[in-house]
């Protein structure tokens, strides 16, 4: 939804803004979308998708969409009935008409093309003729509502009604259609009457059946009308069984139908905006965190067979029925609302997380869910992630799935999340998409030129003048981002943050953004060997033609070779291309990555805040700061500061699994000389481990490795590490040889180490904590901690020290 408050602030700068005013400003909102007419796509794949859906909307015969509405109202209709989910016997019939109302409204608002307005007006006028005196308006009889209220089998009647009421609201708000609002108000009164006569328990029973976003639309209507009846009618759809665990930050989503739940979270955040009740906000935020962090695939989609699975089950849930498209459509809606609410993501260290996810799901899931070979934008329902899966699509009149419907909506509003503003003083640039922003009320135009993601640069040209704070999203996947204003570099922006450029802008100012992309292998949480290949944010899929696969293909990352075409690699005989461009053939997004998986991680600890220690290699071995770890000035950027009481850094399981050799190197400023603290300790308890302590009770620094407890330790001993000064320490171990380095120079070695790291099940991998519970925690600042699955040479270790790396 476009914030009407922004519209009011913006004034009628663009041609197609309807005279709609909101009675109530949203509570708790500090960022706003621009109205659709303010942003124009100027090329690239998003504009192409939009063109196909626009063509489909113009092609669609409105009388065919009205057929079942007219019959249900006792009116005659000679139109050819639609098929698929719109057939006259399908219980969901009528839902597509709601999607078309929304899509037409968005298409008209974006383009000003009156063909969309004419069709929308016709649809609204004809629907008015189908509305019953009691306000009921549907393509199926009201007896469906009796059935859902009494627990009898019926598909999802309120889900369908939601599509229609939201379509009417969009027709009113985006095109200024007054009749649409009149129909909607009468229909809202019917919803209120129908539900007010039920008990709370009866309503809760009814809410077990999918009811879509009707709560959201009613909250939106309340913001428009200020009528308290619309508020409490919206709250009739608060589903306790789902909302209560979320309010308590409990992930109880497993086993629930995914797309039934996402709109409940959207309604919750709109409930927060309408009422200021922070419980609603917490429900929405917690839900988003669970779904994005624990239930989403590499392409940003979620669900298998439409259901949420147990948290962190990904590799074990690859099928032909993964990633229903509606789910991502709704997750992006939720993400936008959360961005409005908390654009900087006050959740520490996660400033860019919302829009990083938006980009991931938009580019990898939804962009590629439309068939580019169909002039009408035919759309996927599921996006299979089984190895050997293939995308299948809808058609003109005989499909009409839910995802065909949300696909029409998605592809008529692709420009709505590129730019956001706060109070007309901040300009967020969130997406790198070729587009022009005509900033209402500021007399400023921003022209964005890019071929992202095929290139990793974008260029913004400002026309007009004035002061504002341009905040560029620096994605978490980039390394070495550079931003230049009129040719002058602005410093080193950190990944996962926003770079603020607060200045007085003048016409002709140019911002050049470079976001280098690296090849990365994103592991699944339930099987680190199962990985998706990414180049920057873009998931690459192996292209398998007509050849089905019965198991995950194997991939040796060392064989990945760029073809010379952007975003394309070969691995042996297999071509990898962007998944969003993968159509008409079988593919695999996930691979069984063989032994040469990069078991390398680098922790710079330069995140602004938060509990994630990002693996800067892009290999996905992110760590977690435990116990309230804070940050302090580091050897470069910031370091983590460990207090010697309960703080440590937890590194992922498997990081050295199978390694026959390794290097651990880090900068450390030891703050106390407690004995037996650990710089690092990787292992599985006090029986098998490898560790480095800065000081033993014998006054030595010690590396030890064992598979037989302390009595069987094999060791390298060196003088204890001094306190109070930064030192670079490194351990290398390959074959029987282990070497200990301090400040780039060897200080001790042992060439009789017969225990191998591969013999240790490294499930507890810690910086600053021992496998032995009685040992003290480390009191130190730690920076630039790195792990390699090979022994670095003396020259390489020396180089790390010399370069403060
Ligand atoms: Zn769907």
From TrEMBL:
Gene3D superfamilies: 2.60.120.200. It comes from the Bacteria. Residues 1-23 form the signal peptide. The keyword Signal applies. InterPro entries: 6-hairpin_glycosidase_sf (IPR008928), Beta-AFase-like_GH127_cat (IPR012878), Beta-AFase-like_GH127_middle (IPR049046), ConA-like_dom_sf (IPR013320), TAT_signal (IPR006311). Keywords: Signal. It comes from Actinoplanes couchii. Residues 427-517 form the Non-reducing end beta-L-arabinofuranosidase-like GH127 middle domain. Residues 38-415 form the Non-reducing end beta-L-arabinofuranosidase-like GH127 catalytic domain. It holds the Pfam family Beta-AFase-like_GH127_cat. This is LamG-like jellyroll fold domain-containing protein.
